[in-house]
Amino acid sequence: MDKEERKTINQGQEDEMEIYGYNLCRWKLAIVSLGVVCTGGFLLLLLYWMPEWRVKATCIRAAIRDCEVVLLRTTDEFRMWFCAKIRFLSLETHPFLSPKSVTHKVSNGHAVHLTENLAEENRHEMSKYSQTQPQQVRFFTHHSVKYFWNDTLHNFDFLKGLDEGVSCTSIYEKHSAGLTKGMHAYRKLLYGVNEITVKVPSVFKLLIKEVLNPFYIFQLFSVVLWSTDEYYYYALAIVIMSIVSIVSSLYSIRKQYIMLHDMVAAHSTVRVSVCRVNEEIEEIFSTDLVPGDVMVIPLNGTVMPCDAVLINGTCIVNESMLTGESVPVTKTNLPNPSVDIKGMGDEFYSPEIHKRHTLFCGTTVIQTRFYTGELVKAVVVRTGFSTSKGQLVRSILYPKPTDFKLYRDAYLFLLCLVAVAGIGFIYTIINSILNKVEIGVIIIESLDIITITVPPALPAAMTAGIVYAQRRLKNVGIFCISPQRINICGQLNLVCFDKTGTLTEDGLDLWGIQRVENTRFLLPEENVCNEILVKSQFVACMATCHSLTKIEGVLSGDPLDLKMFEAIGWILEEATEEETALHNRIMPTVVRPAKQLLPESTPAGNQEMELFELPAIYEIGIVRQFPFSSALQRMSVVARVLGDKKMDAYMKGAPEVIASLCKPETVPVDFEKVLEDYTKQGFRVIALAHRKLESKLTWHKVQNISRDVIENNMDFMGLIVMQNKLKQETPAVLEDLHKANIRTVMVTGDNMLTAVSVARDCGMILPQDKVIIAEALPPKDGKVAKINWHYADTLTQCSNSSAIDSEAIPIKLVHDSLEDLQVTRYHFAMNGKSFSVILEHFQDLAPKLMLHGTVFARMAPDQKTQLIEALQNVDYFVGMCGDGANDCGALKRAHGGISLSELEASVASPFTSKTPSISCVPNLIREGRAALMTSFCVFKFMALYSIIQYFSVTLLYSILSNLGDFQFLFIDLAIILVVVFTMSLNPAWKELVAQRPPSGLISGALLFSVLSQIIICIGFQSLGFFWVKQQPWYEVWQPQSDACNTTRSLYWNSSHLYNETNLDTHNIQNYENTTVFFISSFQYLIVAIAFSKGKPFRQPCYKNYFFVVSVIILYVFILLIMLHPVASIDQVLQIVCVPYQWRVTMLMIVLVNALVSIMVEESVDRWGKCCLSWALGCRKKIPKAKYMYLAQELLVDPEWPPKPQTTTEAKALVKENGSCQIITIT
After folding, report:
1. Residues annotated as part of the active site
2. pLDDT tens digit sequence for 1204-1224
3. Quick one: 1020 and 987 in the same domain?
4. ∠178-179-182 over CA atoms, to 5°?
């Protein structure tokens, strides 16, 4: 039964959840209803806040297959609870679903995939989805995803489209014909409407949700309590503050919803044409599309309403919404394995693997190319929230909570305050009972102490600093959509940078070419645009092997291709629609040299040129294009010179890959050395290759051939050398980060040696540092996985000689400070493949490599995200700075992600910089540190405020007195709110310092600071309270008391005047109250100044003019009413008259208090850390952060770093610590 009751859905995925079944229980419901009535609705609120309690209190456990309610719990570190109601989807209501037609419907076989066996599908479907009633399907919705009951899995699972478990062959054979109307209607019933709905909640709904926040409920409780005690003014002030807070919160939440809604709704409903089974074209709304529909892509383009795979024709697409790159991408039809020469029928379609053939939702199709009579068609694979855009919107709508020590500590701190309040609560009750106080007064006063200890203004005060930081960031061009992350940015101690477009300029410049003739490299040539080279195969390859296209007459495409094409000075012409219609096939794109480039007379001596003599003009037509694939690291084209009988295949790509696909005899012997020389200098190198195709390859055959047949046995032609310049500000910014002890890491899709070279140029790797390249190889032919270690600078030298220079091995430096451990003299570099192998087979080595890994090259987008996670696993606070192109996942996963692109992809990133330069990184960290310090200052101040006020009230309760309504009002509004909102205004310090602010409130120095101030304040308050009672003029105050007038006779004569006066019911007016009020008023200002820290993270206090002016005005005012009483103010504040010498004494107490407080706070700042470390010096302290602990371990590890030319092998079976052995290969 237990197995039946608890299952896991979305297993192994990011949103994995445990699921439990429950049924409603009548008697439990009745008890809860009674409890709600008895607690005045408070139990209802508690159950609203806690979904788990709500379900457990009103339901009983049941088998998941029969339950009415499901309880879900995430399996991540947050363990969040959600509940959902089971609903039924009735299938019998649909006219198409008569029993006769059941066998003809395509349903979603396996309850998760579209069935490929057409005959069985609906019967199969019914048996899987349903239990007793064959026409009903049980489902629930969570986070915009429907989960249906699946009888085969005995679990709930969400409906998948054609994106999983469907082979490429079946897409052509079974799904390319389209759906019948019946199939379509049936699927629509299951999949629902194809739209990404972002409902903007009504103001009322948002208001209720916001008001039911525990914090506002506590404020409401406080307000009701104060009103019963006639503290109307302060209650009104809190009400006004809450209303302002709620309104601003509602405004920002609603604004975000509207923005997201507009972004999604801009193109949510369009009219689309779909093909039906009998080849008729039907026009429907895009909201009616379902997986399996065959959509016709219009000639003039469209915005894609779903994810679809191209099965006919070619499309040019702008994918900036997803990738951040506004460069048009050419999408070709999915290779059809059944007609390919090399069969690959078993390959499954995947939108990620086949993204060059997939049109993603939200991307714009600019134009299409097609065969005459054949439309450009695409099979719909995913709809609604399952699409790539839908997943992006879901991640914004339902973000993961940010886990930050500061916030966890804040809750702990509040719990401590609640405990203190509890003590005061009990003390008040006991004291009042002993003094025979009325029961009503006891209840109000004891509850009042809770509202004093846990200040209702705390969240508003905490938010102020973040709001100010957000405004300052906006002024320097950094926009933030997740304000809570600003504080976390103050903790960053490692920043990952993308290379191209982030550290270096966006575009590449052509530096030159180096051709190969007779298997030898010629000298590098700078100018490609000349008559001698115009008809060479090298230039022909540059002219044809690209993905450029003309959009509205302007050449556009990949910047690298553009630069290359511009360098040769050729002209590209594309066929118009009319031309294509005239011919029976697609017209090729034609390229030809500009007229001035062609030699006037054709050279007769050269036999090879005879073919070119026939046509009057020299043109090359591009017959078939195999787009660039990052997985293959190459692209190729099939082209034909006008008038030539045979076609040519041209290929360009990563030099290592191209060389491996060429005939070995055509690759120069010194290829590796030449390539290494270029990459070491930071050049980007692209290799070109060519071969003549057999004459039997006709145009039609080429259209269906697989690229593997073309891309082999090539002739190596040479290298194109591109230069990628560093951005001007890069070295200076990286130097600032290094000075501030912030590690920098490069994550790039580029070549390894180029990346290492750029890292050296920009100062990420210093000239004297060693670079160790980790080359990991996966297990193969029964051999275990292994890592070969090379030293980058000695790669070539070591292969010639087995003797290794002992100086090549870096010396470890022993540092005094743990923080400096990371600044050692060796760096690891690895590519994406090696990184994946290390994560999989060398789990114990991965953290060590994270400690010194500086260059990660050839990284795929998901590998970038894995790298961020790996760094976070060793307790780094990771920042990521990228241009948004393929960094979305990493930007989102990092503690602080900064996108340098303002495109829609930046929605995934918490921060977006207006200026595309990395100078925003130090700015963000400085502001983050300032905001974090502000949060600490405010929290400490608010804690002291509540404790000072709590103690004042507790002292006064002991004599059955209290602070007056206007005294509370003056303290809470005039002092506290003014101070809190102005002390947060300190701007960030001008530069980054090596020191980092603490990450949590519960750290030794911080706690010592707060506790010492509490003791000082309590001490001086108690001193005043008890000393006033020792004064010769002191007596229990009565309305006729007049301590200011020492002439006794006058006092007695006037006594009868006061007899008739109404007595002070709350006993507010007395000498103790006045003394405590004055001393505590000064104490709030003293701790505000003591806690307002300036350097090294914020500008000094005196630069914060609003704060300085506010504090001076408050000091002057309190001093004035203390030393020179004003009758009307005294009357309002319910202050009594005390002798002048006592006023001076109070001033002395306040001055000594100020002196002691500020001196103690300064000494805690200066020597607190040293004293604590000295006190804890007896026991050796283990660093909290894993990376520091690792660094300590590695200092004494003789085997680390690995020696050059050694190999580390993974042990075959045991995967425990120390599972790697180092084998030295000589």
Report:
1. 498
2. 778 888 775 444 444 454 444
3. yes
4. 165
